[in-house]
Structure formats: C-alpha cells, structure tokens
User: Which sequence fits this backbone?
C-alpha cells in the first residue's frame, strides 16, 4: 500500500488506531457506497468491543471475522488503487505535451483571430473612405462635365468663355484627379488589409485543425496524429508570425 | 433601226450622268450669303446699316438658321451626341440673344455716323472648315472726333476667305 501511495502520490491520512487500515478517501467512499466497508469505529464503540471480547468468546470470534472481512475489504481497496494506478500509468507520455500545445495553440489562434479582426475593420474603414472619395470624384466630374457643356454652348453661341468658368472647370478637373489618386491609394490599402485578413484567417484555421488533431490523438492514443497536428500548428504559427512581421 | 437603237442606248447613260451631276450639286453646301472679304469690310457694312437703321440688312449680315445648321452646328463641340444639346435649343438661344442684342445696338447706335478706324478681336477658335473670331471691337471716331471702341457684335465667322457676323451678343 505504501508503494501504491508513493506511486499515485495520493496523500493519505496518517496511520490511526482504526482497525481498518486507511485507504484513499475516494476508494473509501466507493467501498462504502458498495456496502463493502463499514464506517470506522468510534472510541466508545472500540471500548465496547473490547469489553465484549473480554467477556464473551462469541464476541471474540465475531471480532476475528470482522478482522478477516476487513482485511479482505482492504485488499479490495488496494486492488482498486492499483487498478487506478495502472490506468494512470497507461497514459502516453505525450499527453501532457498535448495539453501544453493545445493551450498554446488556442492562444495563438485567438491572437491571429484578433489581428484578423483588426485587419478586417481597417479594410472596412478604408472601403468606406474609398466610397466617399469615389462619390466626391463623381461630383467633381459631373461639375466639370456641366462646365464643359456650358463652355461648348457658350462657344456655339459665339460668345467667349469667362475666366471664372475656365477657373471653375480647371479646379473641378484638378479635384477630380486628386480624388481619383486618393481612391487608388485607398484601394491599394484595402487590398493589403484584405490580404492580411486572409492570411490571418488561414493561420487561425490551421491552428484550429492542429487543436482538433490533438484531441483526436488523445482519444485514439495515436502519437502520429498529434505530430501531424503539430505540423499544422507550425504552419499556422509561422504564417501568423510571417504576416505580422513580414507581410 | 440601228441608229435608233444606238440613240436609246445612250439616253439612259446621259440621264444617269445628269442625275449624278444634279445630286452632286445638291450635296454641295452653298457658300454663306451676304459675306464680306475681310473683317474691316464687314465692320463697315455693319456701321453703315446701323447708320441707316436697316434692321433687315443687319440681320442679313449675321448667320441665318440654314447656314448655322448646315455649315456651323455639326462642327461645334456642343453638337456631339454625348452632349445631348439639340440644335433647336442652340439655334433658339443664338437667335433670341442675338436678336435682343441687335435691338439694343439699334437703340443705342442707330442713326449715328461713325468713322471706322480699325477692327480688333480677341481669341480665335479654329474648326474644320471655318474660324470664329470672338470679342470683336470696332475702334471708331465719332462725329465729335472722339476715338472710341464699340462693341457692336460679339463674334464673326470666317469661312472660305469671307466674313460674316456670327452673333451680335457681346457680353
């Protein structure tokens, strides 16, 4: 039992005066639930037992029977503890690493998802700015077109186009060109942010696949499944780092 | 018989040639009417018509609807299909404003005698078959001997070496 205690590292209460040797509380509870173990005797009850043993032979035999039964029950407890110990010993060594890697991957996945959200939000903001700039460009183009038509009609009537109208036309065309350049800048930035988002989304997916394969590896007790998952994890983490640092 | 047959055979050819000739002549744009060989002559004609308060002659010195439609309008940028400016609108505006400006000129300068000194104009716009001179200014000497600029008409059209008033609108 001491070996079992050491193996399991289960803290047991110190040795007592009880007739039944102490076992792990869980084992004790299970045995009691099955009706195979009695509650430890109290001091007064033990004193009563001694008085019976002293006074009557029947009581002494009963006590021996109790002792035999108690030892049998104790053996059962030891067997249960041994069985539990064997179960723990059956766990593959890499299970602990599965837990560690899954936790780390969950963190990486959460970070990648967070950065993907940031990139998506930025892309959305830039798209809004691009749409507003496009609206302004259309407005300036319309103004320029109206001024050109006015200029054409003015010329068709044999009149001279005023310097004011020429200035307004030139200004409208310049603003339209400026808006067009701004739209192109916004468009390029939107594409970049969308690219970031896509890369980060792939990173999240790879990490999630790795976590899934880790779970499957534990359930199936297949180390190679976990190793395969770690390949996905490496790809996902590498993609995240590359996206954040290089791309 | 042979002579008659030959005569009938040549008749359709002659008729076809006549039709083609007539078509060719009909397709040719007639020259502008009431033109003058240079800007100075045109200005002198306008001053003379103003002096005699001859509104009909002044109108003849300017483009009419047929001339504007056949010889001017199709070359103007405003006539491009994407502009969606109908000819009726352009001619209506030109005629109305030019007539209004002509009435104003007659009211202001009608019956007065001016001695033409020279003619100046502003920018010139070249089109395929004609040129428009804008912002015309007539430098004249009044009966009092004062030299002064007159804005009697706004623009002139020069086509085929002849000049005509495009519009009396000066503003």
Assistant:
């Amino acid at each position: 039992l001491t070996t079992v205690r050491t193996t399991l590292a289960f803290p047991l209460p110190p040795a007592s005066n009880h007739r039944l040797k102490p076992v792990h509380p869980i084992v004790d509870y299970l045995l009691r639930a099955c009706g195979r173990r009695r509650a430890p005797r109290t001091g007064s009850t033990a004193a009563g037992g001694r008085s019976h043993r002293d006074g009557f032979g029947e009581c002494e035999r009963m006590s021996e029977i109790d002792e035999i039964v108690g030892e049998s029950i104790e053996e059962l407890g030891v067997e249960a503890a041994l069985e539990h110990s064997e179960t723990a010993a059956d766990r593959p060594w890499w299970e602990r690493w599965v837990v560690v890697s899954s936790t780390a991957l969950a963190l990486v996945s959460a970070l990648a998802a967070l950065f993907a959200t940031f990139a998506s939000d930025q892309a959305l903001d830039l798209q809004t700015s691009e749409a507003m700039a496009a609206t302004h460009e259309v407005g300036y183009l319309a103004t320029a077109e109206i001024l050109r038509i006015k200029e054409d009609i003015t010329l068709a009537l044999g009149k001279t186009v005023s310097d004011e109208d020429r200035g307004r036309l030139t200004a409208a065309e310049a603003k339209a060109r400026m808006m067009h350049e701004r739209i192109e800048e916004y468009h390029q930035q939107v594409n970049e942010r969308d690219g970031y988002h896509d890369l980060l989304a792939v990173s999240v997916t790879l990490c999630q696949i790795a976590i899934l394969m880790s779970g499957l590896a534990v359930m199936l007790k297949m180390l190679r499944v976990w190793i395969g998952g770690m390949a996905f994890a490496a790809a996902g983490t590498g993609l995240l780092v590359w996206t954040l640092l290089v791309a | 018989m042979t002579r008659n047959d030959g005569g009938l055979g040549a008749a359709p050819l002659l008729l076809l040639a006549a039709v083609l000739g007539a078509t060719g002549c009909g397709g040719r744009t007639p020259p502008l009417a009431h033109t003058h060989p240079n800007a100075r002559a045109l200005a002198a004609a306008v001053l003379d018509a103003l002096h005699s308060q001859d509104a009909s002659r002044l109108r003849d010195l300017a483009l009419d609807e047929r001339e504007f439609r056949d010889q001017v309008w199709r070359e103007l940028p405003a006539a491009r299909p994407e502009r969606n400016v109908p000819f009726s609108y352009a001619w209506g505006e030109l005629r109305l404003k030019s007539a209004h400006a002509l009435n104003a000129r007659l009211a202001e300068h009608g019956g007065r005698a001016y001695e033409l000194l020279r003619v100046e104009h502003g920018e010139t716009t070249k089109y395929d078959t004609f040129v428009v001179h804008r912002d015309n200014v007539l430098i004249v000497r009044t009966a009092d001997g004062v030299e002064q600029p007159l804005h009697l008409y706004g623009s002139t059209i020069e086509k085929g070496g002849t000049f005509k008033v495009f519009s009396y609108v000066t503003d």
User: Anything to note?
Assistant: Confidence is low (pLDDT under 50) at residues 1-18, 42-55 of chain A. The two ends of chain A are 61 Å apart (CA to CA). The first helix of chain A runs from residue 2 to 8. Chain A is about 85% helix and 0% strand.
